[in-house]
Amino acid sequence: MNAINMEYNSQKEELTISEYGRNIQEMIKYAKTIEKDDLRQAFIERIVDLMLQMAPQSRNMEDYRDKLWKHVFRIAEYDLKVMPPNGEIPTQDEALKRPEMIPYPISQARYRHYGHNVQVLIKKALEMEQGGEKQAGFIRTILSYMKLAYRTWNKEHYVSDDVIKNDLKTLSNGMLELSEDESITNLTNNQNNNNRRNNSGGRGKRNNNYKNRSKGGGRNRKNKN
To answer: What count of Cα atoms within 13 Å lies in the side-chain half-sphere of residue 78?
Structure first.
């Protein structure tokens, strides 16, 4: 009985880029043996078209065909005498280049539970006219935001206005502070009360208009009868 010689993939040459499969790699390897430059160029261009068909969804991506040409040269171990459409022959040195690291913004933030936005607001408040009404209103807004942030991350702990005021004073190096008799809670409550008055006022007007229309309609019905 004759023995059948079978060749397994594990015994074959390792794939350089596995997503294109072994046939593409074998064709590129064969293209290196073509002696005529024009035939070799046309052969590689057909291979690139075939590689493009494997990912049709990427056809409209910018510079995707250039990427395929780079992969061809990589599979050919950069020993291939052809010219890409862009006129730039990829090299191994370019492939080994790595992009420069993007510096990550590092903020030396104290009291991180307030968040980075508080630091930005404090910096903006310090640029305003010292002691002006605009700055005072901005300080109240910052304090309200700080108290809201504190309650968000510390729901189980009670926080007094004095703690928030002292934290703001520390973060601003003593440049921003609120008078002792003003309450942050009252500022928030006043805003909520104003919203309630506006909403209730609108509802009252609607109710009165509805009552007037109802009364008028009743009189008109009586007159008709």
So the answer is: 9
**Tally of domains in the chain:** 2
The single-letter code of the amino acid at 225 is N
pLDDT, position 225: 42
Residue 102 CA from chain centroid, whole number: 16
Distance in angstroms (rounded) separating the CA atoms of residues 130 and 181: 20
Whole-angstrom distance, CA of residue 52 vs CA of residue 120: 49
Assess whether 148 and 76 both reside in one domain.
Answer: no
Phi, psi of 175 (to 5 degrees): -90, -25
Residue 192 inside a domain? The answer is no
Question: Token digits for 81?
Answer: 């005498």
Give the residue numbers spanning the domain of 166.
110-187
Q: Pick left, alpha or beta for residue 25 (phi over 0 → left; psi -120 to 50 → alpha; otherwise beta).
A: alpha
pLDDT tens figures, 45-92: 999 999 999 887 877 777 889 999 999 999 999 999 999 999 999 998
Measure the N-to-C terminal CA separation of the chain; round to a whole number of Å.
116
Contact 150, 114 (CB under 8 A): yes
- The pTM of the full predicted model, rounded to 2 decimals, is 0.46
Mapping DSSP to helix (H, G, I), strand (E, B) and coil, where does residue 24 land? helix
Rounded to 5 degrees, φ, ψ at 203 are -65, -40
139 found inside a domain: yes
Among 96, 124, 142, residue at a domain's last position: 96
- Given the structure tokens 């024009």, which residue do they identify? 38
Rg (CA), the chain: 37
Q: Where are the alpha helices (DSSP H) in 54-78?
A: 64-75
Residue type for 114, please?
A: Y
